[in-house]
Specification:
Rossmann fold; seven-stranded parallel β-sheet; two-stranded parallel sheet; 11 helices; binds NADP nicotinamide-adenine-dinucleotide phosphate
Length: about 280
């Protein structure tokens, strides 16, 4: 067994957004390493399909006879639903790791996005994170062990054209995670925040359908990561105890530049947007 498989074998991981994209890719790798996995998301048929796929994989790949694979249909905007699901899991198995991946982007021009999109993005991406974390925290604090993994985005540290509703909700996740990290040290709970670049998932395909041309072209200028690669970087980052998990060179480079030289970051972004607008909109 590899060192990573050894680390995850027999652990119990609660994954929000586990029926698709980055969350599902994490679940697949964890099941292969003998971990128990609980996936949650809203849409029942997609959730059941993902669960069946994980069960099949466990039957073929895993040697752990105590492996648990479960799913709960719920909306992360409801704190009560998350608390109920966590309570049911904890009755069987202590949750060692939370990977909170549920989230979505609603792109559009500032002056065209409906006002409720701003509220909905905060409710899903920010409040959803707080709900998931708070649901697992009491038991982890009592046990004085655990990992909380909040999936944010590169848009969590970088303003991105067309993402005026999504970006603030992910900035909020980063700010909140900083405070959580400080408070949880005394309880031996590791906090991790993930800032993926564009990742090839059903979620990205959906948001691509509504992006302004500037956002589409900005995305095309960056490398698209496969979801399984991002999942691998997340799992390695958790094991290494890394707080900021930046899955590729671009996300690391942009993080460093945006921190050390915000003016340079604005200059780069403005130049790229101006070039796109000249070529594609005649502006
Ligand atoms: N893909 C990218 O390029 C990218 C880049 C940076 C960051 N991210 C972040 O990575 C995370 C995962 O994204 P993804 O690309 O893997 O998306 P995805 O393929 O659409 O998967 C999202 C998952 O979250 C679930 N979900 C959405 N809203 C929910 C809600 N209100 N309650 C419970 N579950 C909900 C979805 O299932 P249901 O719809 O059935 O509920 C699905 O299982 C998100 O937080 C996203 O913001 C993605």
């Amino acid at each position: 067994m590899t060192k990573t498989a050894d680390f995850y074998n027999n652990k119990c991981i609660f994954i929000t957004g586990g029926s698709s994209g980055i969350g599902l890719a994490c679940a697949e790798q964890l099941v292969g390493m003998g971990a128990s996995v609980v996936i949650v998301s809203r849409t029942n048929h997609r959730l059941k399909q993902a669960r069946r796929q994980l069960e099949k994989q466990a039957a073929n790949q895993s040697t752990n006879p105590n492996q648990l694979i479960e799913s709960y249909a719920l909306n992360v905007t409801s704190y009560q639903s998350l608390k109920r699901a966590v309570h049911l899991v904890e009755k069987k198995r202590p949750i060692d790791i939370l990977i909170h991946s549920a989230g979505a982007a609603h792109p559009g021009y500032v002056h065209q996005l409906p006002i409720h999109a701003y509220h909905k993005q905060m409710q899903l991406n920010y409040a959803g994170t707080v709900h998931a974390d708070r649901a697992v925290l009491p038991a982890m604090m009592e046990r004085r062990s655990g990992h909380i993994v909040n999936v944010a985005s590169m848009a969590g540290y970088l303003g991105v054209f067309g993402f005026s509703a999504y970006t603030p909700s992910k900035f909020a996740v980063l700010g909140y995670s900083e405070c959580l990290r400080q408070e949880m040290r005394a309880y031996n709970i590791s906090v991790h925040v993930v800032c993926p670049p564009d990742t090839d998932t059903p979620g990205l395909a959906r948001e691509n359908a509504n992006k302004p041309i500037e956002t589409v072209k900005l995305s095309e200028s960056a490398n698209l990561m496969p979801a399984d690669k991002v999942a691998g970087r997340i799992l390695n980052g958790i094991q290494a105890g890394r707080y900021m998990i930046l899955p590729n060179f671009e996300s690391r480079w942009m993080y460093a530049v945006s921190r050390w030289s915000p003016g340079l970051t604005r200059w780069i972004m403005d130049g790229m947007i101006r070039g796109i607008q000249r070529k594609h909109t005649g502006a």
